[in-house]
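Re: your question about ATPase

S., sorry for the slow reply, the queue was backed up all week. Below is exactly what I fed in.
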Amino acid sequence: MPPLRGSLGPTWAARKRARTEELSENDSSSDSSCAPGAARMVESEKLTPAFPFQVDWRRVLCQSFSLNHQENDQAILESLQNITDRLEAADRSLYDASIMDASADLNYQTMHRIRCAEQSTTELCLNEPLPVWNADGLIHLRGSRVVTNLELHLERNKGTAFLVYRDYKCCESRGPETVQRQPSTISADAVPSLLVNESVSIVSETLSLALDELLSIRVGSTLHPGFNPLMEFSAPYVWWFCQRDRIQSGIQSLAPAHLPHILLFQDYLEESLGQEYQTVDKLLEEGRLSAKYLPYLYIPGEMQLSKMGKDDPQFYRAFKATSWLQYSNMGASPSRLVVSGSSWSYNGFFQQNTEEWAFYCKSPRDETFNIDDLAVFPLRLAGPEVAEALQHRGEMFWECRLPKYICYHNDSALRAQSPQDARYMIDYNTYKDMHPSPPAQVAPRDDLGPEATGPNAPLPDSDFLLCLPCTIPGYHMLKKEWFTLYVSRMTPVQWNVDAFERLVVDDKKKKLIQALVTTQIAAEESTDLMSGKGNGLFILLHGGPGTGKTLTAESVAEIAERPLYRVTCGDVGTKAEEVERYLETVLLLGKTWGCVVLLDEADVFLMQRSVEDFKRNALVSVFLRVLEYYDGILVLTSNRVGTFDAAFKSRIQLSLHYPPLTKENRLQIWKNFIEHVEGLTNSRTASLGIRSREIKDKLPELAKKALNGREIRNAVSTARQLAMFGNEAMGYRHLETVISEMEKFDEYATELKGGLSDDVIARQCQEY
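Result:
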C-alpha cells in the first residue's frame, strides 16, 4: 500500500528559524536617525540626474556584476539570469516561510459525542468517556472536559483545521456479556462496543479548498463527498482508500498553502485507519473479506455483478455502481445491503435505468469469506473468464437489436450445434406487435437514438455491453411460440450446407431446385401488371411418404441460408376465416424474416374444387388468394395430387414428383444415417460406441428391405435406443430386431388391404 504520509522537504522548525532571522535583520537595518522626508530627498538626489545625459549600460552592468567591462554580451546575460534566479528563489523562500508561520499551530481535535438514549441528550467532550452503571443496570457514558459552546471553542483554537467526531450511544443495552458489573464503574474496554461512528467535520476553509484542489483538480475524481466547512463525512473514507495512488501523485503538485493541511489530514488517516487499510488490502489480494469491511468493496463507477439468485455467469447481471454501500436495516442480522447502480434494458429501444440492487450478508461481522460468495460483488474480482463471457453475451444481444436467426443450446457449456438445438428468430419489434401492451402515458425513451442503433452503427463500448440484459424473447420456429431465452446460450446459426448434397434425389432435380433458389428470387419491383401482387417462388413436391419431400424443403432453407417456417394443415385449421387469418400471419412472418415457408401435407388446399363441397371450395379459394400476394419462397408437399386443382398450375413455378425409393436410393440413405450416428459426439451413443464395420458390411442386405426414408430413420433411432437400454454398442443385431418387428406390422397391414401396396392403392385412386 502506498504510504499515507508525504515529505515536506526542510523541517518546519528550520524554515521558521530562517524566517525569524531574516525579520530580525530587517528590523536592525531599518534603524535610522533620518526623518522619512529626508530619506526620500537623498534617494531622489541619487536617482534624478541632470539632463541631458547618457548612460553606458554595459559599464553599469559590469560594475554591478563585478565583471570586466570588456566581457562579451553572453557573459553579461548569464550573470543577469543568475541574479534573476536568485531573486525568485528568495521570493519563494519568503513565501514558504510565511506559510510555515501560518501553519505552525495547525492541528485537528477529536470530539467525543455521546448520545444518551435514556436522557435524550447529546454531549460533546474532549476526553474519552468513562462507562458507569445507571440505575437500570445499563451502561452510561460520562464525559469530561465538556464543550458547551463549540463556536467559542473553535474561536479559542484558531489552528484547528478539522474536527474528528467519535459518536457513542449509551443506555440502550446491557453491553457485552463479558463485562462484569462493578459497584460504580466498569472497565474502559466496554467503551469501544458503544462507538457507532466516526466522522470528520472541516473547520478550516483552507483545508476545504485543499481537498477540493487535490480530489477534483489534481486527481480528477468525483467520488469524494462535499468539503464545505462544518459538513461531516463518515469513516472509513473509502473515497480516499480507493484512490490512494492517484492522491499521492496529486499531493506532489499541490499549492504550498494547501500542502500542510492535506498532510495533516493524511496524518489523521494514518493514525486512525492505517492498520485497517493494510488489512483490507491484504484480504482483497486473497479474494476474501469480512462483513465489517464490506464498504471498501463497492465503489461508484465500478462494474458490479448480481448473481440473480443463481451461481452461473449466464444468469449474472452487470451494473455500474452509482452509490456507496448502504445498510437498509442497520444492526439487523443478516444485514440487508443496498448498492444503487445503472444498467440497460431493451423494449425495442435501449433505456438506461438506475435501481437499487439489494442483497444479504449472512456471515458474522469478523469472519472472513470468499468475495465471490456474495450475491453482489465487483466484476474485477470475478475472474477474466466471467468478464469475457459477459462481453460476448453483450455483443450477441447488440446484434439482436435487429432481427437475427439463432441457434439455442439447452446446455450453456455446449457450444457445438447439435440436432437437438432449436432455432429461434429474435425480433423484438415483431414480438411487441404480437404482444401489444396497454397504451403508455409517456412515449418510450430511446437513450441511444436511432443513429446509434442502426444497421451500420459501431459496436458500443464495453461498459454498455456488460450492462445489457441476460435474456431476450425468441420465436421457436417449430413450436411457433415465444420463449424467454438466455443470451449466453445463443449462437449464430451454422448452416448445414452438406444437407442438400447428401439429399438422395435425382441430380437433375437437385440442380433445378438449386438454380431457382440461389438466383434472385425476389425482385425489388414486381413484374406483375397489377401492383401489389406477389413475386414469390412456389415449389410443389409430390410423391409417396418417406421419399424425401420434407427433407428437400429443409435443405432448400439451408442452401438459401434462410429460416424454415414449417406449417401443417393441423396448424392452419378448417374454417375459411381462421385459415385466411392464420395464413396471412404465417406469410407475413415469412416475408418479414425472409423465411422459406414449408406447407407440409397441403393436400386439402390443393384438391380440385367441386359443387358439392362448399367448405373445401372456400379453403382452396382462400389459399389461392393469399398466395397471389406472397413474395417469398413457399414449398408445398403433398402425397396426393390426383385431384390437383387446375388453378394452382399457373401459380407454381416448379412441380417435382418423388417416386418410390429404389434399392440404390435406400443404400445411400442407410449410409447417410450410419455416418451420421458415427459423427455424434455429445450423446450416450458416442460413449457406448457403434459397430460401424459390422453394419456397413450388411448395408446391401438392409437396402433390399422395402423401407422408405422415414422408416429407415425410425429403424436407426429405435436401434440406438435398444442398444442404450442394454448398455452396449449399437450393432446390426439391434437393427435386425427392429426391422423384423416393422415387417410384421407391414405384412398385417398389407393383408388387410387385400395384398395391395400403398402405391398401388394410390394409383387406383388417382392420388399420384
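The chain is about 40% helix and 20% strand. Residues 290-387 form one domain.

Happy to talk it through on Thursday.
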